[in-house]
Write a structure and sequence with these properties.
Aldehyde Dehydrogenase, Chain A, domain 1, Aldehyde Dehydrogenase, Chain A, domain 2, five-stranded parallel β-sheet, 22 strands, 18% strand, homodimer, alpha/beta
């Protein structure tokens, strides 16, 4: 068992590098994103697959809990088979009591000690990446490579980012001071101490599409600031976060810490968990990813009960295409964004505003008429969908049957269908639930049709009178609906400035002219803030200073002489 | 008109010193707390008095507003005369629209530029300190010296502290980055920018007892992070904050900035302002000092409307006296705390727990029986009350008639009166509304009698079975009622540690063995956090990182190549 001081020495450079990257916003990745044997060990892929296969149909027994109160599981792969895994169920009061016990000694460590223990626990837990990729693929419907990256290296980098943010922020203040105040010729002296006190146990409410990536920032921001965390899984997507919690618990246990610092809350049809957990005395912070309706309700409940609540709710993401260097390059990028994981991403583009007069293309020197733009956009999507090598893996499967219903609702809206949705063959999985993008034609006079989140592979091309009109539609949509991403194509510097100012004022993050191998749906740890906290799409931002600072108090002690 | 760069150079050292003090928590004061001609100019005192006298009975015309919609004023000095001052009234929508206009250019400055302008504005505004002292005395009822310190140097230091906190926190992130991600043998490159975006216009709801000290932290934390602020005054206590707003506006105007960055909202019987202001579109943050009932309601409203709300609500402050070095020294300190401004302070001690077996005094080697403790405590209060030189100035006058009613309610609770309340003569003011401390005997079996805030000069001595019992009563009171200060007297190191751990766990700030010229009611800028944000007494702490970080977003822009 390594001492805390040893662990701090072992991980000091990593943590310092992470803090430096988080502050400078430059590229940084601690875990390689390629699911490669060269990085993760030649047998890692096969081992992970074997562990996944062995887990199917069995109780998940890798969590360090006392006797479970019951076992429950209801997961089915969007690729068409039941997982048959059951998970140990504990009541909210047991989970919170466990967390409070674990939190006591943990909150007395220094931020650096906590950070070093957490980095060590993450490094040990990275051994699960391949099994985690299968678990993620077969609960969320993501393609394998995306599942590997999103739940593995990208999520772990977000966790490390939260640790870095927590260390930097907690270092704001000295831990003691000799306070000497001059009073005329005399002085008065007090000796003072300052201690970090977490607001309380953290509850992180996971979502069904990014069960690890969206959960670990809140969990690690809480852990590094002295709290224990309880990860409440989505009932249909338990396996990925159960794996992460299990691996962290085992690492903490090996390191001599109470494994109940991280726990899993499993919802059942009889106890959906979220409200009961959040209502349990001792809970101080809540992190939530999910629908706006439930998120709004949760924010209210937390405000009434003195709980700090961080939310990422749904938004509507607009794109505006005014002019491009190369339309093919732009459309290839945009088509990929729309196809990626069948748009089951909070950052996926939905409404594409295009001037009715067409899009200027610099490379050809011509203005591409609107109808040609639409045709080429549809072709770009078709090309990706029909590409047998990358299409199925890019689109993946549809997590929830409700998304298929939503596509059907959109198809029967009565608006022109520019590209129809259809199933896509997933070679190994004949029963996969799939759907290619549905592209509809929107009309700004019938805004209500497209101005709410159509979660899933549903996009609208919406003609606008001009760039200015499109920008006004974008910013007013941001104000009404909230947003997680915006994208503007223009080669005109003054239009770019105007768009940046208007979208910044509305609280939206902005991207310009994406046409290479980076997509608007992506958000890079250490460099991109995920969520601005400034629109209806949520009050949290991964990972700004407020995301960690609001989780704890600095409590002072003053001693007279 | 100085350039921004000149101002940054002029105030760089002050801001750096302030940041250093804020981080190291050592003694720091930028403005001298002594109302001395040597510091503030030989004529400053007389000039301030003359300006005060000249203002009485007249419209307050020192605010840089457009034509007022109406004029209103209803202030009366607790020392027994009407002020007869009227203030310009503007509707909430006019104030918020003004603020939004002013905010646009302001939020585009760098944090250092904003900080330098604000320090310059504060320095220029310090010229009002003496008039401000009279204005504060004759609205709040504070004694003159306290009024000078609380609204002048101590408040301005809290404002400077908020500026320092804002600069440090906003420097977390680079303002641009060249993001280069390796992709195998190739790389992908994005150019990124990061900009500070305030959540929206700030509304600061002032209180009747500390109209400046409690308001400037939120106002300056908002200003330094790019927002405009509207100070909503208490209807009976407008003059002090009107003076501050007027001085800041004039300084901003001289410096070439829109004076509507800081505005005054004057409530009238027809428009109490708070709800209308907070409900106006464009408001992003609210700071509130006041009652728990209204504060709870405001927190809920803000949660429902996506507004970040910082509160300081009422608490109940306990003291535990187990053992002392010198009982006289301890009681002199405690008596002063109870008498200071007639306990009209959120940090004043209320419930004094004392072991029934008495208090051990080290210097004499004897245990002082409970009844003797009570008698000497009453004597210490009497000695101060009857001290003609310092008594009247220390106690001051009673801000609200409701406090006299409260004293009457407490007197008729039916519990033993250990010391009765009575008026105290304020030599220059025969009609002053005054009251000396009422001391009652509490009983832990009848906790409801003393376990709510008895705002004003009302204290309870509550016998407990032991130190442990007293500590348990303290911590459970903290959990039930919230707290702004706690004070423990013990000469036993292990008891001190036990108390520190238990009170920290409950979220309370702690003080031990105060017996010199520092009192538990005091909270020193740069060193003491005011409010822990961890109890029912409020969610804000002057001035921790969360107090500034939650006021703005960092919004990113990504540009493809």
């Amino acid at each position: 068992m390594a001492s805390q001081a040893d662990l701090v020495e072992k991980h000091r450079a990593t943590i310092e590098q992470a803090i430096e990257a988080w502050r400078s916003r430059t590229f940084f990745a601690h875990w390689a994103e390629v699911p490669s044997g060269k990085v993760y060990g030649e047998s890692a892929a096969a081992d992970g697959k074997a562990r996944f296969d062995a887990q199917l149909g069995k109780p998940f027994d890798r969590l360090l809990h006392d006797q479970a109160q019951s076992w429950h599981g209801e997961e089915e792969s969007p690729y068409g088979f039941a997982l048959g895994i059951s998970y140990p169920v504990h009541s909210p009061d047991v989970l919170v009591a466990n967390a409070q016990r674990a939190q006591r000694a943990w909150s007395a460590l220094t931020p650096w000690e906590r950070a070093a223990v957490l980095v060590e626990a993450l490094q040990q837990s990275a051994a699960i990446f391949f099994e985690l990729a299968h678990a993620t693929q077969h609960t969320t419907g993501q393609g394998f490579v995306m599942a590997f990256q999103a739940s593995g290296p990208h999520a772990f980098d977000r966790a490390l980012e939260a640790i870095a943010a927590g260390v930097w922020t907690q270092e704001a203040f000295a831990t003691s001071a000799d306070w000497v105040k001059p009073l005329g010729k005399a002085t008065v002296r007090l000796s003072k101490r300052y201690r970090i006190r977490p607001r309380g146990v953290n509850v992180t409410i996971g979502c069904s599409t990014f069960p690890v990536w969206n959960s670990v920032p809140g969990m690690f921001a809480s852990l590094v600031t002295g709290a224990a965390t309880i990860a409440k899984a989505h009932p249909k997507v338990v396996y990925p976060i159960a794996l992460v919690v299990g691996a962290l618990q085992q690492a903490l246990d090996r390191l001599g810490f109470n494994p109940h610092l991280v726990q899993l809350a499993v919802p059942t049809p009889y106890e959906p968990m979220t409200q009961a957990l959040v209502g349990t005395d001792g809970v101080g912070t809540v992190d939530y990813t999910g629908s706006a309706a439930f998120g709004d309700q949760l924010e209210r409940f937390c405000a009434e009960h003195g709980i700090v609540c961080f939310t990422e709710k749904s938004g509507v993401n607009p794109v505006l295409v005014e002019s491009v260097e190369s339309l093919d390059a732009a459309l290839e990028n945009l088509a990929f964004s729309i196809c990626l994981y069948s748009s089951q991403m909070c950052t996926a583009p939905q409404n594409i505003f295009v001037p009715a007069a067409g899009v200027a293309e610099r490379s050809s020197g011509r203005t591409v008429p609107l109808e040609e733009f639409i045709a080429r956009c549809v072709s770009a999507i078709d090309a990706l969908v029909q590409n047998e090598k990358v299409g199925p893996g890019t689109l993946g499967a549809i997590q929830s049957p409700a998304t298929l219903d939503r596509i059907e609702r959109a198809r029967t809206l009565g608006v022109p269908i520019l590209r129809d949705s259809a199933p896509i063959v997933q070679p190994e999985y004949p029963n996969a639930r799939t759907a290619t993008p549905l592209v509809l034609r929107g009309d700004t006079r019938l805004r209500a049709q497209y101005e709410h989140e159509w979660f899933g592979p549903i996009a609208f091309v919406v003609p606008v009178a001009s760039f200015e009109h499109g920008l006004e539609e974008m910013t007013s949509s941001v104000r009404r609906c909230g947003v997680l991403s915006t994208l503007v194509y223009t080669t005109d510097g003054s239009l770019q400035s105007a768009a940046e100012e208007a979208l910044l004022a509305a609280g939206a993050p902005v991207a310009f002219n994406f046409s290479g191998p980076v997509w608007i749906n992506q958000s890079a740890a250490f460099s991109d803030f995920h969520g601005t906290a400034a629109t209806r799409a949520g009050n949290a931002s991964f990972t700004d200073v407020a995301f960690v600072a609001s989780r704890y108090s600095v409590v002072g002690t003053r001693c007279g002489e």
